[in-house]
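Entry, Tuesday afternoon. Goal for today is a structural model of the target with LAUPNLSC bound, before we commit to ordering more compound. Inputs were pasted exactly as handed over by J.K., no edits. I checked the ligand SMILES twice against the vendor sheet because last time a stereocentre got dropped in transcription.
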Amino acid sequence: MTFIAMCKDILAHGFSSEGEAVRARWADGAPAHTIKKFAAVNRYDLAEEFPILTLRPTNLKAAIDEILWIWQKKSNNIKDLNSRIWDSWADETGSIGKAYGYQLAIKHQYREGEFDQVDRLLLDLKENPYSRRIIVNMYNHADLHAMHLYPCAYSMTFNVTGNRLNAILNQRSQDILVANNWNVAQYAVLVHMLAQVSGLKAGELVHVIADAHIYDRHIPLVEELINRPAYPAPKLLINRQVKSFYDFTVADFVLENYQSGQQIKNIPVAI
Ligand SMILES: Nc1nc(=O)c2c([nH]1)NC[C@@H]1CN(c3ccc(C(=O)N[C@@H](CCC(=O)O)C(=O)O)cc3)CN21
Ligand SMILES: O=c1ccn([C@H]2C[C@H](O)[C@@H](COP(=O)(O)O)O2)c(=O)[nH]1
């Protein structure tokens, strides 16, 4: 299983940041050190199975809500998000700065007219699916100074092979325990959504993680987690009536037979 193999690799061969100056902090102010691996590359065949972790539950509804917040609502304000996961990075107005959804709402001039990056993507998938130029990129240097946290999952490259929509998710940094299951499941759902509204089938998701890390306080939790039994992948059911990307809601997704281990309660999140 991909997650277990990656964690074993990081735990056994990871490089420790002890002794280095690190940015992230624990709630008590202590530096949040990690052990990390450079460039974890994981492939998920979405035609084969839905890649959601079964060692512990993932709140898929909340993960989809966040992906819709970024890609569909194109919002950077936690008032438009139904979970509290971004609270620590929001200012008094609820904004997380010019990050994620803010970037996807910006309109750009193309030869075909003015579009934001999501509308540009939807147009390409319908009209020019075999293009090798279908990229969505949120890592905008001009605005980094105004982002409360630099985008972690920052770009997607789409590539259609036959009738299959494949995608590479580029992530510069990942908190493996808190966010790997979350990011993989939500981007897998995004590929399914885009495929459905473009008359395509979901193909492969390739997740490239430049800095794949386990925080020091997560090490015993990960060691326990990866020794649990895994269960067969559940089935993701999607409302096939939805024809427009902008019509999807969290209610259009149902996980059938999601069997998993116990939740790990109160995982500390480095800020
Ligand atoms: N250190 C760190 N790790 C992260 O994963 C992370 C950040 N910082 N900063 C910004 C966002 C916030 N992210 C988060 C934060 C918390 C959860 C989390 O607690 N998820 C729970 C339940 C969430 C819920 O039900 O509302 C889960 O079960 O997955 C997920 C993603 C991902 N990102
Ligand atoms: O979608 C996300 C958002 C954030 N993260 C993690 C990765 C890092 O642990 C922190 C960000 O700290 P940096 O020092 O900016 O790398 O947030 C994630 O895994 N997934």
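The first strand starts at residue 15 and ends at 16.
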